[in-house]
Amino acid sequence: MFRSHILVCGGTGCTSGNSMKVYDALVDRVQKAGLENEVHVTKTGCFGLCAYGPIMIVYPEGAFYSQVKVEDVDEIFNEHIVKGRIVTRLLYKETVGEDGSIKALNDTNFYKKQHRVALRNCGVINPEKIEEYIAYDGYEALGKVLTEMTPQDVIDVILKSGLRGRGGAGFPTGRKWQFAKNSVGNKKYVCCNADEGDPGAFMDRSILEGDPHAVIEAMAIAAYAIGADQGYIYVRAEYPIAVQRLTIAIKQAREYGLLGKNIFGTKFNFDLDIRLGAGAFVCGEETALMTSIEGHRGEPRPRPPFPAVKGLFGKPTILNNVETYANVPQIILKGADWFASMGTEKSRGTKVFALGGKIHNTGLVEIPMGTTMREIIYDIGGGCPNGKKFKAAQTGGPSGGCIPAHLIDTPIDYDNLIKIGSMMGSGGLIVMDEDNCMVDIAKFFLEFTVDESCGKCTPCRIGTKRLYEMLCKVTDGTATLEDLDKMEELCYYIKENSLCGLGQTAPNPVLSTLHYFRDEYEAHVRDKRCPAGVCKKLLRYQIVADKCKGCTLCARNCPAGAITGTVKEPHVIDQSKCIKCGVCMEKCRFGAVIKA
Amino acid sequence: MAKKIDVPFNGTKEQEEKLRAELAQLKKRGDNGLMIAALQKAQDIYGYLPEAVQQIIADELGVSLAEVYGVATFYAQFSLFPKGRYKIGVCLGTACYVKGSGDVYKKICDTLKIEGGQCTDDLKFSLDATRCIGCCGLAPVMTVNDDVYGKVSAEEVEGILAKYGD
Question: Which residues of chain A does B23 touch, with a Cβ-Cβ cutoff of 8 Å?
């Protein structure tokens, strides 16, 4: 028995902030003090509150230290671990009451409304030890499935739970499995999409890093249900920690006989391989992903035939994403009714969102479906920093849309998001404030899709490029109002005629901003003005003569030599020379430089 | 942009043996779809994928060179040209350019005897012109891997490069 457990976050966010040095230092102090049998230091997956990393937590007190530096380790060790005095100064400030008392983590705003199903083990267990996963009911669901249930029973439970795919369009998982089970064939495959490519979404990475066995167990359950004996996890090469932990987890599962032949003493055989993606966004599309596993250029192909009939290597295949799988063992153990009791009528369960952009608490949150955007952004996320006004939230990455402030009370589920012109996607949620230009955001996403279009079909390859050029005209101030209508027409054309999901959804960022923020587009076109002051070509820096003291600081710092004036006299910016870098505004101590 | 000149291929016998051994290992798994894994191994060994290396893979896997090339050029991870151990970027955005980053860029070219997009023979340095990296207040800016140098003059270039040993 240990008297103290120290959990240090080993997720990518905290690791980049040097959490592994904190871990090493703690292990070192514990060893030097000869406390190895009393104090247990362990690495875990992501706690979710990435904005305050590196994070560590000490039990039994539940003391949640945030932004821990290597230099803080001695103090925490000597005071807290040795003497039992919690270092309040270094605690996450939300956990410290006004009287200095310590609140439980689950009572803080960030965690209070969360309900962790897919993330339940992240930040709790050491992902590199299968024993810890097993201690938290790991592989019990697989045992139950193999010894007590028929494949059809499994599919019925998943169908009844209402689980829908967490990676994109939200197709019912049970139905997908049923199709694959019904397909005739002596060889079938189970695949996992871990090629998380949406800019701003990182929940799949966190699950793989924090709880890799949950995915392995779920894939084995799926394989049993459809009659497969081989699985592939397609994971991005850009996620080295996830790849390493998956590799360890697969090896351990094999050693325990949980992968391989005659699992749990039954006739069921199943093994898994990892395939590394090589950096192509389109490989998130199911047919493209399978083409890539086969070793080719990751180009999609027309459906039907659907993968459940003819997928990987021409055999019946199911593909689900990481978060979808992470829910499966829980559903088997706790039952379909338990899962279906969370969420909304057509979107059951919980969803993980990656909060990013102009928001206080960037990080990962898991909430029941049907939670409103307001609760996520203000109650959990802490609102926009610096007192700025919330303008819009972008969900669904390059396939999604922008949700304006007046729809902030919309309960979030698959169908509501589609209704308001966005989509769930994999769950990135980027918050934007008054300083963000919506045309510029649409342009950013379009630039991404132009880069990532695989080039196989014309509407996507050429259409997105033309759409991008039209957006450039808007931000340059050379577009006409007629161009806006043309843009809209082109959007629908691309959506209707593209081969795969990438092209079919690529115009969404443009359509949704055109719909909700048309006035902003029109300001660019008609008034040659960017209301948010982002689009450089439409920007003019000016010096307010009344405020200018003639200190010459701006003129001395201007990289283009565009500012002239005599000492102690108001200065002037020559617009023909100005390159709009904003240095003058940054340097001015009197607030005399303004954007006009 | 300067035209790209092919760097002579300097693969060693050891590298080739290692690659062939890795490919044999892959083939032993008796699996389909080895191409991407093969290219990843090759890039680990050589740092990039020159034609000679693509040819080895094509021969070993029994596919055409065109197919290897097609896959290698599809994915962002693969590079057909070598990158140096130290990747130099010089911002040629407007703010840096008017402050003289063009001179800095030229000085680096002259010192290392390479052009933009190229790599020195010893694979130590490669040079790329970048777009604005968003710190115009520090103009002109150059980066070496993750180090950022601000307000650089052409005279300082040699001193900065000298900081990077083997």
Answer: none
Cα A1 to the chain's mean position, in Å? 37
CATH code of the domain covering residue A518: 1.20.1440.230
Structural domain contains residue B154: yes
Contact partners, residue A329, CB within 8 Å, separation at least 6? A137, A138, A140, A141, A142, A214, A217, A218, A221
pLDDT at B30: 64
CA distance A151 to A141: 13
Mutation to test the B interface, candidates A247, A293, A453, A579, most B Cβ within 10 Å: A579
Distance from CA of B75 to the nearest CA of A (A): 5
How distant is the Cα of A280 from the closest Cα of chain B, in angstroms? 6
pLDDT tens, residue by residue, B5-50: 556 777 889 999 999 999 998 888 766 778 999 999 999 999 889 9
Alpha carbon of B85: minimum distance to chain A alpha carbons (Å): 19
Cα–Cα distances in Å, from B2 out to B109, B110, B127? Answer: 11, 13, 11
> What gap in Å lies between CA A329 and CA A138, rounded to an integer?
8
Q: How many CB atoms lie within 10 A of CB A457?
A: 20
H or E segment to which residue A322 belongs: helix A322-334
Residues A231, A146: one domain? yes
Q: Which domain holds residue A563?
A: 540-595
Nearest to B71 by CA among B34, B30, B125: B34
Q: Is the pLDDT of residue A301 over 80?
A: yes
Say whether both A302 and A413 belong to one domain: no
- Supply the ipTM of this predicted assembly: 0.81
Q: Within a domain: residue B67?
A: yes
Q: Give, as one character, the DSSP assignment of residue A188.
A: -
Q: What is the DSSP secondary structure assignment for residue A478, as one 8-state letter?
A: -
